[in-house]
Amino acid sequence: MALAEATVFAVIWAIVTAIAEIVFRRIKDHSMYYTISSQGHIALSAFNFLSSWLIPIFTFMAVMVIFALVRFRAPDNTPRPSPVQTLRNKWYILLWVGVSFALNIMFWLHPTAVDLETMFANWKQQQNQHPLIVNVTARQWEWIFSYPQYGITQAVNAQGLDELELPVGRPVEFFLRSKDPFHSYDIYADVIHSFWIPAFGIKEDVIPGETRTEFLVPDHVANYETSPLVRVQCAEVCGPGHPYMEAPLSIVTAKQFSQWIAHQKSLQAQGA
Amino acid sequence: MRDMAQAEPRNHLEPKVLRMAPVLRGFFWAAVGFATGNLLTLAVDPFRGHPWVTEPSAVVGWVGALMGWLLGVGGYEEIILPLFGFPSTWVEPQDWRRYFGLSTNHKVIGIQYLFSSSAIFLIAGLDAMAIRYELMQPSMHFFTYSGQYLTAVGVHGSLMMFGVGTVAMISGLGNYFVPLMIGAKRTVFSRLSGLGHWLLPAGALTLIASPLLGYWDTGWRGYEPLAMQDPGGMVFYYLGIFAMTLSTIFTSLNLATTIIFYRARGMTWARIPLFVWGILTVSLLNLIWQPEIEMTFVMALLSKLVPWNFFDAIGSVETYLSMFWLFGHPEVYIIVLPALALWNEMIPVMAQKNLFARDWAVIGLIFVMMLSGLVWAHHMFTNMRNSEMFPFAFFTEMISIPTGFSFMAAIGTLWKAKLRLTTPSLLILMSLFNFMIGGLTGVYLADPPVNLQVHDTFFVVAHFHYTIIGGMIFTWIAAMYYWLPKLSGRMYNETWGKILAVWIFIGFNGTFGQMFLLGLQGMNRWVPAYPPYLKSMNYEVSLFAFFLGVGFIGHAIHIIWAWRKGPLSSENPWHARTLEWMTSSPPPEENFAAELEVVRGFYRYDHDNPSAYFVKDKSEST
Amino acid sequence: MDNQEPSGVVEQLWGRRQIIWGGIGLGAIALISLFAKPDIVGLTRRLAGSPVSSGKINLYQFDYYFIPNYMTWRVGDRLEVTLQNQSHTHWHEWTIGRKLNLAFFQGFGSMNADAWAIDFWDGVDVTLSDPYKVDNFVPHEAHVTYVGPKAPYQIASGGDFSPTLQPGGSLKLTFTVPNKPGIWRFGCFVQEFIHYRDGMKGLIEILPA
């Protein structure tokens, strides 16, 4: 009798968990969200890893709540002492405290420690692979992209709006600065922005007076038509223009990229 | 009552008649104070521009208004006169009118706080409905300007955080029940506490009035350097929150001192109720962190008015962010600790079962309190240096361990219980479920690589609404039902209570559950306009949000109805054992008729003699 | 209780009605001041009409609105507009015209953009004076006379006739209202058109002579 309740609970929990894990794996195969960069894959696999470990904890609580509603309810609201009176159960406490320490330390080591190490090591490696350098200037409320290796100061699309274009498979180093190059009397009068490309799985705040870097390798040819997650989006509130601080992004083949660079150069020559 | 024939000499003791309600008198003197401060500033301001209210003049005017308000509600008679050696001339009317002026009775103050906090919840909730209505379409269709939308977001967040989250359970339920639960007849700093309540509506009204000075964009965090260049409404954000946090500090100072010094005989640390532990830990958090954020806001305000350039590219942007989150994360636990404590306060009563592992439940509260100051930088993974991610990820993971102890005790108590499935029980089970989702999604956010993707998206919005609404608001409503017979002597309707509980559970999970997916699909925060591919899910979220809003209003109506017209309840309908149930309902002015002596803990249901279990009348024992 | 009551106490003589009416009154004041100001201004203007500006006009720029945002001019009047930027942090321009240009934005479709299709100042004679902290000034098709040295005017090209002022800047524009009666709009398009989108705009009704 003593174990019967626990056994019933454990069996239900195991079944519900198994179903939830299977469902999650089906969802995961279609990807939780669209990711096309080296950095994004780290985040997505961490997300999936955490999900598969957190599902049993969630189902434990969900099953427990329903179990309590069904098995542990009093027949009516007349106050009478519960037949079972427990003050302590050393195995339960030991298990709870032990498992919660173990799980949290595990999560901290994997994925956190492992991924951070991988991430930083990747960044260092990409920095040494002669990455494509893109200077990203955030100002209220515009992203400005310049390619110093090609002498392009502000890349624009056919409508004259700023755009970002990247070759697939080549490491990129973004230099992120928040300032307003058009207002020479107060260049650093700008605010915090956050450089976010949802499909790249990373965002980095752009802080006035500081220069931040971000490394990644895009691994698919894509644009806004492929997935609306392929866009540059400001993620930190920066004033009334914040929702509109968005820019087109295309990841193209190396050949298309060099054509695009030539086009930008000619545009710039006409403008100057 | 007074013999008017006995003429007294004409001096300051002459009988006075107050023909104006103190709260209205407060408004009058606040208006006079504002006008005076504002005009004085304009008169001496050499750089005055066009408008009649400038940022500096609004600040000075606001100080004048606050003075006028506090003096007008009764601070002049009750506090200023005695401070200068005159006798206090303030006598609270012994009827409903005492709720409309300064009171020194902790139960009156508690109800004042509960009322103000509920009113703020209503306004912030209507604000949220406006936000959700706007987000039903990908382009702006309800608000005219995105500045208006962002102001609505900022006002919603600030009111909920500083006017509801830190207030409803701590200042409302705390003021009312903590003295009762520890067997005290009054609180230590009762006049300070009485004055403190009136800071809350002052602060909330300041925030609500902030759009009059211009739309501000920063959300509840007042991020620099955006705040520095935002229109004048920002000034009222700082001032409003200053008043509201000061109110919380007064409550915390008063309640912590009362818990330490005014406990009944025999109310040892090993016996004080869980909710009292919750209020004590949270009061310590408040006393540490609320002054910190007030100092930060004073600096930010000066930086804006002067300007000082403390927190822009000339100074240090990250310093503001750090100072904000240094308070900002403890704030989350300030909101949720009383809820964790209340689970384990109510479950043993509803189950009539021993509280499982009481010491672990208390240890959990204390360690959450201590760790809460070490996790703040996880709000800044996207803007801090890489080296800081690792240690803060560690502490963020670790804080879930003591939080888990509250779950452990709750589940241990539920296990094999015979739980009476009342409305409070149901809401607590829902709260356990919701808060578990809030906590587990926090594990994702603690992992920096995942955080860098979902930070500043609706994933985070969903996460913290799960902890705050799912954890705190659900438990607050549960506690209102649980203590309603004590507050009013009346009982709610069990059927309606349960229907409404299920109602808000569905509304809540439908609203915020989908927000996790919205965040993963690329919905960023603080936007009244968004790419059209996110529309259908936003539309659904809004429908659920309206459903949820109606549910909250339903609870409010139900509770107000029960409070006034509900069937009369017995003195101790739940057969609870804590001291607040050992007196009449509602309790008399002095709380207890007799001296109390506690002889046993409150969470033991395995004794068979409930009649003589833990209190004895001192007059009988001597 | 009676005999313990200290002398000189405040006796409260007020009732339920006062609280109810006081609350309703204060609530009404709050709602009106928060939500109904534009309606009240519009109603007043409908009932009382808008006075015709003449002589000196002060036009203030704030974040992100103009004061006044509604003016009535008459063809042939000589006006002296003192433009003042009251913002501490943002630069602002002043353009007048008709028909907004539209641009295509990836996530949001066609939205109002950088300028007017018709510039009010085309062919208008205007005298600029007292420049202080001018960010830049685009004369476009206007016939401009500059008082004093030209350097402080920061003359530039591109876009409509638009004086742009630094925070705290000011500039005086003197002109005779040209024979272009009807409704004209004015606005500030700086910083990626967001100032305009966030309400930094106004209307000028020009009456025939």
Overview of the structural elements:
The complex is a heterotrimer of chains A (272), B (622) and C (209). Chain A is α+β, with helices and mostly antiparallel strands. In chain A, 43% of the residues lie in helices and 19% in strands. Chain A folds into two domains: 8-68 and 93-126; 132-271, Cupredoxins -  blue copper proteins (Immunoglobulin-like, Sandwich), CATH 2.60.40. Chain A has helices at 2-29, 38-71, 90-127, 254-271, and strands spanning 132-139, 142-146, 164-167, 172-178, 193-197, 202-206, 211-216, 231-234, 246-252. In chain A, the strands form two sheets. A five-stranded mixed sheet of chain A has the order 3-9-8-5-6. Chain B has two domains: 22-83, no CATH class; 103-565, Cytochrome c oxidase-like, subunit I domain (Cytochrome C Oxidase, Chain A, Up-down Bundle). Chain B has helices spanning 22-44, 55-83, 106-134, 146-165, 168-181, 190-209, 226-229, 233-261, 274-305, 317-351, 358-371, 389-398, 400-414, 423-446, 448-454, 458-488, 494-520, 535-565, 618-621, and one strand at 16-18. Helices cover 64% and strands 0% of the residues of chain B. The N and C termini of chain C lie far apart (81 Å). Chain C folds into two domains: 10-49, no CATH class; 52-207, Cupredoxins -  blue copper proteins (Immunoglobulin-like), CATH 2.60.40.420. Chain C has helices spanning 16-35, 37-48, 194-197, and strands spanning 10-12, 55-62, 65-67, 70-74, 78-85, 92-93, 95-105, 109-119, 125-138, 143-146, 162-176, 182-187, 201-207. In chain C, strand 7 and strand 8 (109-119) form a beta hairpin. Helices cover 17% and strands 46% of the residues of chain C. Chains in contact: A-B, A-C, B-C. At the A-B interface, helix 2, helix 3, strand 6 and strand 8 of A face helix 4, helix 10, helix 12, helix 13 and helix 14 of B. Chain C: InterPro entries: Cupredoxin.
